Amino acid sequence: MTTPKSTPTGQSQGKNLESMRKFAEKYASRTDTYFCSNLAVTAAVIKGLAQHKEELGSPLCPCRHYEDKAAEVKKAYWNCPCVPMREEKKCHCMLFLTPDNAFAGDTQEITTEQINELCQQM
Amino acid sequence: MSSSAAPVTDASFPTEVLESSVPVLVDFWAPWCGPCRMVAPVVDEIAEQYEGQIKVVKLNTDENPQVASQYGIRSIPTLMIFKDGQRVDMVVGAVPKTTLANTLEKYL
């Protein structure tokens, strides 16, 4: 008997998504930043981070183009939270927005269901 | 998805963009880039507003790394304007429609 959900890839993908979701919530709260008022942006970025974690072992920023993703992971500069975020609270991916940002919403929380639903609509 | 911006690839870029007789706006995007999803509808509106005057296309940087690298794309989304086969301007990040329109107007 085979159940599609029990494939290793499916399981680890879910695990990575969950760990990135939790990381995003915690990091937003710790840095006093907020998710985008358009949560589809947040959902896409979390999904992209989880995908990079799955493929590369690190959550490389999904809002950059890289010549060589594996080499970038080693450099670590764009591994989330990236250096610009850690040093200046600058996230061009719009995952973590300071309250003065016009696109900032009022939440630091997103559920797995919301992520899956919003990503399906894309 | 009904988008006014037609997709271009590494292969079609020279004919579709560089050899175009009208200025071309290229939306460099990636599948899991959040702000790209905010820019896409703006780009579509621009395509409708300037129909006949410019061409509007989009390029998936994950699937077409050659063109993306050639033009030094780093931060995504990046919107580039090409005229007579040359890159003439560029806007990086999610920008309001007016910013994009003002940049475009210079090349019409």
Automatic annotation (TrEMBL), chain A:
The record marks H92 as: Increases the nucleophilicity of the active site Cys. It catalyses: [thioredoxin]-disulfide + 2 reduced [2Fe-2S]-[ferredoxin] + 2 H(+) = [thioredoxin]-dithiol + 2 oxidized [2Fe-2S]-[ferredoxin]. GO terms for molecular function: 4 iron, 4 sulfur cluster binding; ferredoxin-thioredoxin reductase activity; metal ion binding; oxidoreductase activity, acting on iron-sulfur proteins as donors. Keywords: 4Fe-4S, Disulfide bond, Iron, Iron-sulfur, Metal-binding, Oxidoreductase, Redox-active center. Binds 1 [4Fe-4S] cluster. The active site is at C63. [4Fe-4S] cluster binds at C61, C80, C82, C91. The keyword Protein biosynthesis does not apply. InterPro entries: FTR_bsu (IPR004209), FTR_bsu_Cyanobacter (IPR024707), FTR_bsu_sf (IPR036644). It is an enzyme of class 1 (oxidoreductase). Heterodimer of subunit A (variable subunit) and subunit B (catalytic subunit). Heterodimeric FTR forms a complex with ferredoxin and thioredoxin. PANTHER family: FERREDOXIN-THIOREDOXIN REDUCTASE CATALYTIC CHAIN, CHLOROPLASTIC (PTHR35113:SF1). Catalytic subunit of the ferredoxin-thioredoxin reductase (FTR), which catalyzes the two-electron reduction of thioredoxins by the electrons provided by reduced ferredoxin. This is Ferredoxin-thioredoxin reductase, catalytic chain. It comes from Waterburya agarophytonicola KI4.
UniProtKB/TrEMBL annotation, chain B:
One of its GO terms (cellular component) is cytoplasm. Residues 2-108 form the Thioredoxin domain. CDD domains: TRX_family. The keyword Thylakoid does not apply. The record marks D27 as: Deprotonates C-terminal active site Cys. Disulfide bonds join C33-C36. Belongs to the thioredoxin family. This is Thioredoxin.
